Amino acid sequence: MGTALVVIGTFALLAAVVVGAAAVVLRLRHRPARRTGWTAAGLTGAALALFIAGSAVGLPPTTTTAASDQPTTTPTATSTAPTSPPPSPTTATVAPAATPIPTVTPTTAPPTAVVVGTTPPPVPAPTATTTPVVVPVPARATAHTATGPAATALLALAVKGRAAKTGYSRDAFGLAWADVDQNGCDTRDDVLRRDLTATTVTAGSGGCEVATGTLIDPYSGTAIPFTRGVDTSADVQIDHVVALSNAWQTGAFAWTPDTREQFANDPLNLLAVQGRLNSQKGDGDSATWLPPTTGIRCAHVARQVAVKTKYQLWATAPEQAATARLLTGCPGQTLPTQATSAVPAPDPSTDPAPPAAPVTTSPTHRPSPRPTPRPTAEPTSPAPEPVQSVGLDPRFGTCKAAIAAGYGPYTQGVDPEYDWYRDSDHDGIDCEHR
């Protein structure tokens, strides 16, 4: 304000000089100059008044410079600001000191540091793009959420793909049902005595050979009568819970022959089961086959884990996932041991389906266990004429022809017919119905 008054006063003084000069010229020419003289005097007086007013309210130039260089002197300059108009552009540099820094909400990014004496960066208006959206990242799915000894042992197994089946044969696992525990009885009879009830033994067998008994099949829940004989022995078979072929492809190919023979006759890995379901299972693991009775499935996969743990076999990724998924339904599932390797009873709490009705028998009738009834007429397949042997099944040229006619399967060491045909997979059973 003071500067403006000084400027106006300067112009008024210059105008007074010009008017005064005009009055002097008129006077020298002897013309009336009274009015011009009064004008010059008035302008001079006004100029002086403006100079005085400007000096009274004007700010010294040094003060403005000090305020620009030292922000701490701004309170003196701003103390008169409420009674004065907005500051001129020359004093605008002191304004940032009085401007508050905008408050930043927790959802925005941290504010940029403001240097005193400089113009702060503009604060953008909050928009949907300036507020970061926090998306929770789920933890990586673990192998399973089951708990208990079986689940812990499953996690400890190595996980790999199946090795090649090249070189596998039943003979690679030693003699079928060898007496590895040297108790005088073969392994098959040891398991039959363990898993069947109401057993009788063949006279003269030293108490080894099971003649009759009843199996409560763990896989189907049905009661299966067992009678040793050419036509009936295959009704009950001994299942390798971890199949020999599966073991070969998950590490057994590198074992010594003695270890493979021990594995094939280990009671921990053996169960007496319904012959038809044993053939159906084949060399499947938990990813490809499970018992029809759901109440036995937890114990079944736990036994597979126990066997693979004992012999340091690995599991495939699908096998591990399927086993883990199953074990989530039976938390706390334990592993069977050599002392508890008998047939486990189905758990009704995990089997919503009603138990299968047991097979009823009578002294004069027993249902045939074979899936295909024996024909009463001559076979219609183009098979060679069978050779009839007394007390045995008809003999055909191949297993295929025998199966087509409704005969088989035959077990090594049990059925004389076994020696008639070729056991292509060397598992001790030929003419299997697949």
Can you characterise this structure?
The chain is mainly alpha-helical and 434 residues long. The chain folds into three domains: 72 residues; 213 residues, no CATH class; 55 residues, no CATH class. It is 31% helix and 7% strand. It contains twelve helices and seven strands. A three-stranded antiparallel sheet has the order 1-2-3. A two-stranded antiparallel sheet has the order 4-5. It has a two-stranded antiparallel sheet with strand order 6-7. Strand 1 and strand 2 form a beta hairpin. Helix 1 runs antiparallel to helix 2 and helix 5 runs antiparallel to helix 11. It is rod-shaped and about 175 Å long. The termini are far apart. The relative contact order is 0.09. About 27% of the residues have low confidence.
